[in-house]
Write a structure and sequence with these properties.
Blueprint lengths: L12 H4 L2 H17 L3 H18 L7 H21 L3 H6 L4 E6 L2 E4 H27 L2 H10 L4 H12 L1 H17 L10 H7 L1 H24 L18 H21 L12
Antiparallel strand pairs: 1-2
Helix pairs in contact: 2-6, 2-7, 2-12, 3-6, 4-6, 7-8, 9-11
Amino acid sequence: MTDFLTYAQKDNSIYRLTGTSKLLFFLIWSLVGMITYDTRILFLMLVISLIIFKIAKIDYRQISLVFKVIMFFLFINVIAIYLFAPNQGTLIYGTKTVICHVVGPYYLTQEQLFYEMNIVLKYLIVIPASFIFIITTNPSEFAASFNKLKVPYTVCYSVALALRYIPDIKQEFEEIKDAQEARGINISSGAKWTERLKNMSAIIFPLIFSSMERIDSISNAMELRGFGKKNRRTWYAARPYRRQDYYFMGSLCIFAVLALAVTFYHGSRFYNPFH
């Protein structure tokens, strides 16, 4: 079975980039995706994200569980936006093209659908970028990458440890799940979703307690070794920039500047096809 969100070295251009380059890609890509509401740029960014994701040759089985959870919360978010702000698109784009009447004060409009489509695109842009960074970056180099950006090394190391233990937590989850099902607690796909949600607590709480014990053991071991005593440290996994890193970061910065220039060209970050 493919390990869950686990780094495994592969020989392609994305893996050969330094962790700092991929971290900057994730941060700048996410920032531009959050700022712009220009649908043309969002679609272009989505295509580029998928192309880079394809080049990285990431196995979908590594991300399937997290992807499904993210898509579930994305669906909930889209529904919530409509329920609490059904006229947000109309206010932004200045027109109201009614498709149909839903119920009471709720109308389905082209403007609202267009606005919520942009919200979905924003999520779909960030998701591949985050997976690319997490899966193609060695956790130790991940910490070194953060530290190069002047983040305290204690914070960097904590994040790297969290990523390193994700596969262990998943394995422990599977073991607790099998043990609970052996006791007659049905969490399989054949059970009703309400029953599965209720029985999931039989897994979550033991998993939380075991994770707390793991955290305590690791923190004690690091404290005994004097971790955090000095203000600086060296990194064994740190790598120097190479030519392809400069090309990659240069192209990224140029794209970001052009994307923001196009976004604010007409004085608004919202692309309006209704005028």
